[in-house]
Amino acid sequence: MTEKTLHLAVALDGLGWHPAAWRLSHADATAPLTARYWNALAGEAEHGALDLLTIEDSLDLQSSRPDGPDDRVDEVRGRLDAVQIAARIAPLTRHIGLVPTTSTTHTEPFHVSTAVATLDHVSGGRAGWRPRVSARRAEAGHFGRREIPALDLARLDEPEAVQTVGDLFAEAGDAVEVVRRLWDSWQDDAAIRDVPTGRFVDRERLHYIDFDGRWFSVKGPSIVPRSPQGQPVVAALAHSSLPYAFAARHADVVFVTPTDVGHAAAIVAEVRAAEETNGRAGPPLRVLADLVVLLDETPTLARDRRTRLDALHGDEFTSDAAIFAGTPGQLADLLAEWHRAGVDGFRLRPAVLPDDLTATTRALVPALRDRGLFRAGYPGGMLRDLLGLPRPASRYAVAATA
């Protein structure tokens, strides 16, 4: 047995992460527009006792181009709102964490704070949130309130691009700070509900957050009482030093994208250095490595399926995360190796849904348990408990007693 079991999550996106997934999926092409489909995916993920699921979202249509729509008609286009999907899943699940994605660039933090706090209430303490930066002009064009310069991915080191990306992450940092303050603005015991005295709320335990920054000016308090976790879990996807610093300052979980075991160890070291540089207080980030997975009974079958998907797509599929095609046992061995390199767990991106999710829960999870790497079931508690994160006290309650 290992000293520490790993965390396991799944990233849900449409009919899978491969652009041609809809051509081979056992689900109907219209399934992602139905509640039944998302309920089934969440139920399958919970069947495997996964820690959490994330739901991808964006404010522009899927595209093969870095920015703006393309002319392809052979790939899935269109999606449902991630927060509303999570809210639909919540009453039909009992244990798994639910982490929708929203944009910090075009979404008001007050709206996000109320939506995610509501999700935490209705799920019994299983909510999380993945804030993402919207750096595409196409997304900005849907709102008409700001201009975002076109970014050339090959020239991100030029001063204008550095300034643009830096501003977007600084804005995202302020957005998360506002959201967290709003989550704290009701102390745990602010709602008295005392019928004999007629006092429903103790106004002294509701707090203005009085945030005044470059991008937001928010008075507070929230309209949603403090949620079961106090602070729902915040997760960030990070590929480089700037988002590592963002995660170190603002997140509880960071999703990273190593290419091999050595790279995994190097990323963990960089994340820990970012925590120290940014003066992180509290528990260290939970570092989960992302992998796109195609699983089958034999390595040959898995490779053949990947080849077929690429042929249907018309090109070799590439991703920001490493792509694994093989058997569940081979993947279990790879996860064990990367886990020993220092990552706390993994967020798997199924290439085809529901197929690769089912292979994960029915074959990979047992293989990990056989290796002593994954728990037998849910131990109970909230998402923070699953991740080994303490429930924080409201900053305003702490200040009042200081």
UniProtKB/TrEMBL annotation:
Keywords: Flavoprotein, FMN, Monooxygenase, Oxidoreductase
Domain of life: Bacteria
Entry-linked SUPFAM superfamilies: Bacterial luciferase-like
This protein's record includes keyword Flavoprotein: yes
InterPro entries named in the record: Diverse_substr_monoxygenases, Luciferase-like_dom, Luciferase-like_sf, NTA_MOA
Family recorded in the similarity comment: Belongs to the NtaA/SnaA/DszA monooxygenase family.
Name this polypeptide is given: Alkanesulfonate monooxygenase SsuD/methylene tetrahydromethanopterin reductase-like flavin-dependent oxidoreductase (Luciferase family)
Native source organism of the sequence: Micromonospora parathelypteridis
